[in-house]
């Protein structure tokens, strides 16, 4: 009641204000209603727009999916038709439904003609029942089977690998065949078998022992028993086990070189497996360049004992021949010295006395014989000169009296006077510590060299140089002639060159000839000083 009284006792202004505000409230209510209706329409419009966009997006996705499906189908068809293997589909009766181009080429008929043809007619007679059994099993239980069989196409047998799968569509059965032509594979396989057979035949019948070894010289294969061991016993052992400690390092190096691409190596070993009387040759590799990491290499082992004995015998015979030739040269030089001495002492002295007697007669009063005696004196002078020349050619006295250097210089001077070829002599050693035999041998070599220049070189100048250094004597003979070919230098019928080399070799020296056509010749002689 009190509250009612308060409301009734409210001021008049307040009640008037409340009456004035009532129309505004009604207007606001109507505005709110219209706003709700507008929002509802906007929501419905937006929902319709969203549904339209979703529908459009679904259509685009469906279109994109259809494009992807078409692209996948196109790729599948390309893969199907251009696959490198033959793909064939058969119905439950074994009739060809579809096939790719490779299958058409395999069966050697047009694709359209092959459709609705029985595939079994292409199966070789001996494999027909096996093929039909495959179809019967796969008709009952869907699965995939693979087998090797033969087709008969254009009067020739074609080996193939056949994979058959089946799928069921209600009562229908579809067989899908994937066929791989094995003709090339079989040809390669047969060729490989033939190669292996030839290789085994070659290895088994080879006169030498053939092994394969790895990088650690471990034997992995041996074609025959060796050193008292069977092939099984040798497998797994190493080559270094059968050689002496001295030869193990050499064997390891040979094996290492053999595994470098394109390199081969050879080792000669004495006393393999403790047999000190026998020699063996080990020939390794080479490993082909495209097998940089090849696990093994081949080694051929040959017993070379007879060869070594023959070699030693030849070496001994050669040394004996050299000693004989050296002795022969010594005897020849001694004989020349003796002949020269006798000619000089006996004939030269007699001619000198004869000349003196004739000169005494000439000094007496002239008579009819004066002219004849004068002629005889002239002939005696010529004879004395010839005797001196013969003595000098047999054994130049200057070689014994002044040594090799002076003798060569004198010989070059005589050569220039006799042939007209300019001679140049250079020497850095006046006195050489050489034995008589060594000096004579080197002098004869220089004589032969000058003779070759005169006969063959067509030179206008020849130069001889002598120098000694570090207990080695070097002699150079250089001409500006037409030169000589390598074949002429190594020709065993070039007796002058062979004789020069043999003389130098006998005194422990070396002789090398360097020349080329049109560029002259250079002879280098080196020998140890004694």
Give your account of this protein's structure.
This protein is an alpha+beta fold. It is 54% helix and 21% strand. It has helices at residues 2-8, 12-82, 101-107, 111-114, 128-140, 183-205, 231-234, 245-258, 305-363, 370-394, 397-401, 404-419, 436-457, 486-490, 495-506; strands at residues 86-90, 96-99, 144-153, 156-169, 172-181, 209-214, 219-222, 265-270, 279-284, 296-303, 422-427, 461-469, 472-479, 510-515, 521-528. The protein has a five-stranded antiparallel β-sheet with strand order 2-1-5-4-3. Strand 14 and strand 15 form a beta hairpin. Helix 13 (436-457) packs antiparallel against helix 15. The chain is elongated, with a radius of gyration of 57 Å. The protein starts with a helix and ends with a strand. The model is unreliable at 1-10 (pLDDT under 50).
